[in-house]
Design brief:
With 132 residues, the chain is an alpha+beta fold. 38% of the residues lie in helices and 30% in strands.
Length: 132
Amino acid sequence: MTMERRNWSYAALTAAIAVGTIALTPAAHAAGALAAGQCGGSASVVDRPNLDDARRAALNACQGSGAKECKVVATVRKGCFVMVIDAPKACEINKFAVAETIVVAANTAIAQCYTDGGTQCMLRQAACDTRG
């Protein structure tokens, strides 16, 4: 094997090890947040580096959507959150839930909506943070 070919082989091996190391490195801690405003206005973010960044991004996105009086209503690390509204009363009935799966979160928030008098409860926002 020539010196030039050997150098290419070492370079390829080094690159393969580096790629394998990157692929096997666990994901950084991640977080998600849901912000809601008046009358069903909302925004959510997931897979952010930390809870502070997730809160800030969700709040900015909610305000950027034109919703008024936005506030963070849910945060999550490796879990799911949902927002449910009652369509005819979107300014009155908004429910939020956080759970390990989106199905559990949705069922919880929908049940709360109907318990509080909702008649047409539906998902408005639903997301899962997958890397936390």
